[in-house]
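Human: We require from you a protein record containing the residue sequence and its fold in C-alpha cell form, and nothing else.

Assistant:
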Amino acid sequence: EKYCIRSGTWCGLVMLFSSKNGEPLGFINDGEISRYRVGGGAGIGARYLAKKSASKVGMLGSGGMARSYLEAFCAVRPIRSCKVFSPTKANREAYAREMSKQLGIDVVAVDSAEEALRGADIVSSCTDSMSATVNADWLEPGMHITDLGE
C-alpha cells in the first residue's frame, strides 16, 4: 500500500505558491487536506440541492471521506441521524461510535446498504468500489444523492 505517515492517508502533496511572485509558501501532505477538500464539495452540493429539512443520512462507507462528508452535511443541514453500512462490521461500528461522539448525533451501524439508505434524506456513497453500491429500487423521491468516484 502507498500511504503517508499511516494507512488510510493518501500519499500526495499540495503545493502552495504566492500568486504575486511564485515564491513557494508551503508543501502540505494531502492525506488529510484532500478529505476536507472533497468533503467540502459534498457539503456545498447538499447545501444547495438537498431539501432544507434534510435530517437523516444514509452513508455507504466508513473511511476518511465518509467522515468528512458527514461533517460537511452536519454543517449545512440539521442532521440528527445517520445509518452507515460498510462491508467490514468492525469498521462500520467504529465509524458509528466515533462520529456519534464527534458530531453529537445518532449514528448507527447497519447490516446492509439497503438498510442504510431506507428513509434517508441524503444518500452518500463514499467507497472505493468499482461496482455499483446503490440499487435504484432503494431510492425514494426527494433524496439528495452524492457519490465519491474515482
